[in-house]
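TICKET #2291
ISSUE: user wants both folds in one file
ATTACHMENT 1:
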Amino acid sequence: MKIYSHENLSLHRPLPYFSYGQMHEPLEIPERMTELLKAPAALGLEVTTATDIGIGPILAVHDFGYVEFLKHGYEEWLAVEEDLGAQVQTGVFVPYDNPGIGIMAKAAKYQADDSAPISEHSWTSIYWSAQTALNAAEALLNQDTTHDRHNTTHADNHIQLCFSRPPGHHARKSAAGGFCYLNNAAIIAEYLRQKYEKIAIIDTDMHHGQGIQEIFYDRSDVLYTSVHGSPINFYPAVTGHEFEKGRGAGYGYNINFPMAHGTDEAGFFAYVDKAIDTVTLYDPDVIVHVLGFDVYKDDPEARCAVSTEGFTRLAKKMVALGKPLIVLVEGGYYLPKLNDNLQAFLSGLMLKD
């Protein structure tokens, strides 16, 4: 098993934002990285510093104008004569019939909600979050492929975990939202297609990853399956229903498992097993697991009740699929248990690695 991170992941610090009629303290804060990094240290696991793979794989998934906004939006925001505030954030979302003239119009075009503001160091963290994930994909692309794709003994030796901060699964082709800016899972799935025919993404974060769904909705070479809280009156609210199955060539390759709010741990794993059955039938070459610790019972975003021990069980289920596995650590906002929960998950990976 190999673990990837980068010191720049801690630079992005969003400020309080207005949502649902009131001000909110951000949940996706740099202190999350401090807690998460304690886990590999406690287990004696080495963390590899990610190297720069470049902007190309990012632009293969996201629109150029959107990436340009993420990179230069803060500079443009500050350059406006009027004081617009300390971070790029308008509360206005007009993605269509918007020529994007001026930074406020660009923000309205590319920021889907107020939970994804851009401040001084945001782009640096956003970029290196994607690069951290890309390092795992690059390692798979460079490995010897003379083995049989069904040789699970070989596959078990290729487990990689990446710290993805800020997270990515809500990021659309040209819109940020839900704490997400670049869609790391989609970026590495697309990157892996250089060599691998079929990629499966299994998302167990508390929220539906509408960005991943959007990007691959009409494709059959990337399966997206998601276990998440019912989107009825819960973020992202407008996607994540069972009837969303894909379009055209992608019909049947987008499978959602929305959980009723209040689902217990047994219910969570019943849905995970259904998602695993779907992935097994698809028989992918590589699995990308979007891991969210926000399914933990005490997480402020939780609408289900997974225990710390449950994350060991979850990891063992991912490894048992017997495929090269890239785990992206994304959601999870209850700081007192992030370290313990990640240790539990890593322990599950190590049992077969």
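ATTACHMENT 2:
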Amino acid sequence: MAQIIEQNSENHVEKSSAPSDSTAAGDDVSAVQPSADTSPMGAALPSPLPDATTALPAHLERLADRARGYVEAASSANTRKAYASDWKHFTGWCRRQGLAHMPPDPQTVGLYITACASGAATADRKPHSVMTIERRLSAITWNYVQRGTPLDRKDRHIATVLAGIRNTHAAPPRQKEAVLPEHLIAMLETLDRGTLRGLRDRAMLLVGFAGGLRRSEIVGLDCDRDQTEDGRGWIEILDKGLLVTLRGKTGWREVEIGRGSSDATCPVVAVETWIKFARVAKGPLFRRVRDQGRDVGPDRLNDREVARLVKKAALAAGIRGDLSEGERAEKFSGHSLRAGLASSAEVDERYVQKQLGHASAEMTRKYQRRRDRFRINLTKASGL
């Protein structure tokens, strides 16, 4: 195996390119992807603490820096970026309409969400979905709170308009396609086992599927406990499987990933192989492969790379060949791995619910794409 790795590493040549849905997961795109903390949007986020330039007694400056770090940790980087983008969208609309966005005015916000629903808030005249409007409203509310000027969302100019938007425009959610076991096996066959990138991508797909993990949980894993500040969990390799400890919105949870029936599809073997040949001993588990595929860097993968990997492998494997390439790319995402486990695991539903970390069985059922909806027949049970 080592000889295969070395031989392919010498001959493997890749061109670095800007990130796109067709980019291989982990290609050297870090240079063109600013992080949430360094982007203009991330820098514009308000804080309830004094700005770094505000004069503080010398003995409190370090404490203030630590407090700002805790403020950042109160929400994920993706949430902060989304909220900053939504706030920018709202304030830009206010400016174009000749309206002031400060202090908060429920009537102005009500007009804004009306414009979003009707398509008048953007140049392409495309109406926003109800989900997008609700997220924008949450972002606006959060930004006002951080500025010390709370917005009253229960005001009739907002609450009544939003209720009308929901009643008029609400539609069933568009679910991503589930990656089923036969799909996953075909996707694994498209990956080159003789390269570091191929070994890493196999491990990510198998761990993501078998653990029912979110894409942020996959890339947030460390090799062991308390190794990085930005880690969202860690792994422990045991005789019977892989124990994954994760930090979620509601606290810590453990996910058990058992060994597979064969080495070719075993997530534990895939992780062990990646660790061995990538020589990853400490820090982020899944990292960028750099230097044209010959070396593994120290940087953690961005969670968008998981979505790109799933899309690319699904397309290469020819899954849902009845659809166009564009439609297939739209159907698959990192979420497809979670949906695949929920749909294919032939066990009691409560075990699937625990694995996915859902608070209710109803949420788990939303992930199940091919469950027998009529297994319990109340019509016959009632005597008809």
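RESOLUTION: both attachments delivered.
EXTRA DETAIL ON ATTACHMENT 2: The two ends are 63 Å apart (CA to CA).
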